[in-house]
């Protein structure tokens, strides 16, 4: 087994002491557990070192980074909204055009790249 995976798993286990953080919630989700970290990093289009800093709880990600991680991991809109709240951000709010687009992206299982294309086409800030 990969030594870096063992140490990261130990860190994640220790984080479960405080389940009210984005990183511990994110790592506890079944869809995240089913994927390896490399796949989530690739799908989220987030730099590898930054990803691990977030997962270890050393960095607090921006709302856009949380959204990228949630889309990349295949979270539902409910899980994504909860992750945003735990990060100290506002949940997806469907009265906002940008959040409606993001909810559509999540429900359809689109990628971060596809999300950015849709956001750009609609004149909204990209992730």
Question: What is the rounded distance between the termini?
Answer: 34 Å
Helix percent band: 55-70%
Beta-strand percentage?
under 5%
Oligomer class = single chain
| DSSP strand tally | 0
Biggest sheet character? none
Which whole number gives the mean pLDDT?
87
Q: Helix/strand-derived class?
A: mainly alpha
Rg over C-alpha atoms, rounded to the nearest angstrom:
14 Å
Q: Please mark out the parts with pLDDT under 50 across 5 or more consecutive residues, or reply none.
A: 11-16
What global shape is seen?
globular
Order of helices and strands: HHHHHHHHH
> Helical region count?
9
Descriptive notes:
The protein is an all-alpha fold and 127 residues long. It contains nine helices and no strands. The protein has helices spanning 3-15, 22-28, 30-33, 37-44, 48-55, 63-73, 77-86, 97-108, 112-121. α6 (63-73) runs antiparallel to α7 and α8 packs antiparallel against α9 (112-121). The protein starts with a helix and ends in a 6-residue tail after the last helix. The relative contact order is 0.12. Mean pLDDT is 87; it is low at 11-16.
Brief description of this entry?
The chain is mostly helical. The chain has helices spanning 3-15, 22-28, 30-33, 37-44, 48-55, 63-73, 77-86, 97-108, 112-121. The chain is built from nine helices and no strands.
Indicate the topology:
Layout: H1 3-15, H2 22-28, H3 30-33, H4 37-44, H5 48-55, H6 63-73, H7 77-86, H8 97-108, H9 112-121
Q: Could you name the key traits of this structure?
A:
about 130 residues; mainly alpha; 9 helices; about 65% helix
């Amino acid at each position: 087994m990969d030594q870096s995976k063992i140490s990261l798993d130990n860190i994640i286990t220790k984080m479960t002491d405080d389940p009210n953080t984005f990183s511990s919630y994110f790592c506890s989700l079944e869809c995240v557990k089913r994927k390896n970290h490399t796949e989530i990093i690739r799908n989220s289009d987030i730099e590898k070192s930054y990803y691990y800093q977030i997962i270890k709880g050393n960095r607090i990600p921006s709302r856009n980074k949380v959204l990228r991680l949630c889309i990349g991991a295949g979270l539902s809109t409910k899980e994504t909204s909860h992750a945003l709240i735990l990060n100290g951000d506002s949940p997806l709010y469907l009265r906002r055009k940008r959040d409606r687009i993001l909810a559509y992206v999540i429900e359809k299982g689109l990628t971060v790249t596809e999300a950015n294309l849709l956001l750009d086409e609609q004149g909204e800030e990209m992730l």
